[in-house]
Amino acid sequence: MPDDQTSHHSLPYIAVSQALKEITHNEALLRIDALLHPVIESALSVPPVVVLADAGKCWLVTQDATGEWQGEDNKIAIWTGGSWRFQAATPGMRIRNRQNGTDISWSGTIWVSAPAIGDPLSGTIIDVEARAAITALLSHFRMIGELAN
C-alpha cells in the first residue's frame, strides 16, 4: 500500500507540509460522496453526454469502453462537472443501477447480479399460507433490490 493513499479505496492522504491541501481533501470527498452509497445511472461502454448539472452522477464502465473511458473497464466513472474520475471496485462492493433498479456486486473479476427467482406456482402439496409468505418475502427483496425481477 502506498503511504499517500488509503488501502481500501485509494483515497488520497494529505501530506505533512503539503501546499494546497484543499485539492487533496476535495478529491477524497468527491470519491467518498460517490462511494458511500454507490448508485450508477446505467452501465455503458461510451461516455454519456453530460452537463455541469450532472456533477456527482456515476456510471459503470463496461467492457471494451471507448473515448474518454478507454482502459477503465469495470470501474465506476464519476462525473465531477468538468472531468471524469474513475474508481476501481473492491471485492464485495455493491452498487445500485438506477436504470433497471437492480443491485450488482463486484466479485473481484466481474460484476454479478442476483439470479431471478420466480414466485411459487406449483407443487404436489399447496400450502396457501406458505406460498403467500414466500411471495411476500420475494416481493420485499425485489423492492430493496436484492433479487432481479
Describe this structure in words.
By secondary structure, the chain is of the alpha/beta class. The chain is built from two helices and eight strands; from the N terminus they run αββββββββα. It has helices at 21-35, 128-143; strands at 39-40, 43-44, 58-61, 76-79, 84-87, 94-97, 102-106, 111-113. The strands form two sheets. Strands 1-6-7-8 form a four-stranded mixed sheet, with no helix packed on it. A hairpin with a 4-residue loop joins β6 (94-97) and β7. The longest helix is centred in the C-terminal third of the chain and has 16 residues, at 128-143. It is elongated.
Structure summary:
With 149 residues, the chain is an alpha/beta fold. Helices cover 21% and strands 19% of the residues.
Unreliable residue stretches = none
Instruction: Give the topology string: H per helix, E per strand.
Output: HEEEEEEEEH
The beta-strand count equals: 8
Report the mean per-residue pLDDT as an integer. 84
Strand order of the largest sheet: 1-6-7-8
Features:
single chain, elongated, 21% helix, 149 residues, 4-stranded mixed beta sheet, 2 helices, alpha/beta
Topology summary:
Layout: H1 21-35, E1 39-40, E2 43-44, E3 58-61, E4 76-79, E5 84-87, E6 94-97, E7 102-106, E8 111-113, H2 128-143
